[in-house]
Amino acid sequence: MTNKILIRSDNVFDGENFLGRREILVKDGKILEVGSGISCDNRIELGDEFVSPGFVDAHIHISGVKLSSIPESFFYETAPARMLSTIPILKKILFSGFTTVRECGDYHGVYLRDAVNAGYIEGPRIIAAGSPLTQTFGHGELSHVLPAETQSGLFGMVCDGVDDCIKASRTVLRQGSDFIKIFTTGGALSQSDSPYHEQFTLEEIRAIVKEAKKAGTYVAAHAEGDAGIRNAIEGGVSFIEHGFLANEETILLIAERNIPLTPTLSVLEQINELGEKGALPKPTLEKLQPLRQHARTVVPRAQKAGIKILAGTDLIGSTGLDIDYGNNWMEMVLLNKLGGLSELEALRAATGNCSVLGKKVGRLAPGYDADIISINGNPLEEIADASKVAMVMKGGSIVKK
Ligand SMILES: [Zn+2]
């Protein structure tokens, strides 16, 4: 018996370009060859179904909270219950064609990653940050009223000063984090800070980046206001998350340093919709509006400057709205409809561009993980067709047909 599988389709997109009719040979969970006239007894004929690399959500939180009551979930539910509640969410994400997610901050992300890898639960590959690092009076605190020491480690790990930041970096790496996530500005959902506030000093950021590099990994920075984005870049971070308020000069600097940007348009629209239903505090919505306006102008300018744009939803908790777990494809739609990316560019943002995340994902090419999906539609013509996922293969095994 052979462990090789050949997939054939008339419409193959390899994560970079549309190739047309191709065959993809899979062996031992990896892609061996992409070409034509390949011989293999074990074949999957997909006809004119659109074939793509499995999608990647480059920024998500699998926290098991309700978006409208994040602090309550952390303070009043046990951490294991919260974590176990995410099991159906992970399956939903995988079945929607997202075979990899980058978990951008939650302590239990590393456990979920390990449980998926061990085959205990079904889900996408998880690249996990573990606890994100936050300063006191930072975006990663659950409350700016309750004592900081009562919440450190529940969501963000609180650290102040270079020595403390070094200790916190080593602690999250020791806990199994794949990379370090930090907050260099405030944000809309945190209680009393603002997206314009700079968080962490340049020295603190540099110290965290140094610790990450020593351990062979990188830092991704939540950075919304322009000054905090600048600090993150100067501090040596490898990824800018959000970047909503970047000015022209900063956009050019991001491009010059070859730093990928994950604009997370989904979370802005999701929070706005939830706010309109009266489910979020008024100050949150007031902080949100300039972010929504600026983000739409940053995406096309970033694209024009040559910045690699990654599709990340920044979903953090269930809402029951259209933008929710399992509809992660909405980010591609928003990048296209609000951010002005072409269908091809939006599709690349969730596939080929994500090969920079340090894993062999997002492309149909020899040596990459055999994460392959088929779609009943053509997202290069109508980006919302990315929702019509039929087959999902992860690591060479068909998990959904
Ligand atoms: Zn986030």
Question: What labels describe this entry?
Answer:
401 residues, alpha/beta, Urease, subunit C, domain 1, TIM Barrel, 2 domains, eight-stranded mixed β-sheet, four-stranded parallel β-sheet, 12 helices, 19 strands, 32% helix, binds zinc ion
Can you give a write-up of this model?
- This protein is an alpha/beta fold and 401 residues long.
- The protein has two domains: 4-53 and 363-400, Urease, subunit C, domain 1, CATH 2.30.40.10; 55-357, Alpha-Beta Barrel (TIM Barrel), CATH 3.20.20.
- The chain is 32% helix and 21% strand.
- It has helices spanning 70-76, 79-84, 87-95, 109-117, 162-174, 202-214, 226-235, 248-256, 265-276, 282-305, 330-337, 343-349, and strands at residues 4-13, 18-27, 30-35, 43-45, 50-53, 55-60, 65-66, 98-103, 125-128, 133-134, 157-158, 180-183, 219-223, 239-242, 261-262, 317-318, 372-375, 389-394, 397-400.
- The strands form five sheets. Strands 1, 2, 3, 4, 5, 17, 18 and 19 form an eight-stranded mixed beta sheet that branches. A four-stranded parallel beta sheet has the order 12-13-14-15.
- The longest helix has 24 residues, at 282-305.
- It is globular.
- 54% of the residues are buried.
- The model has no long low-confidence stretch (mean pLDDT 96).
- Zinc ion binds next to loops.
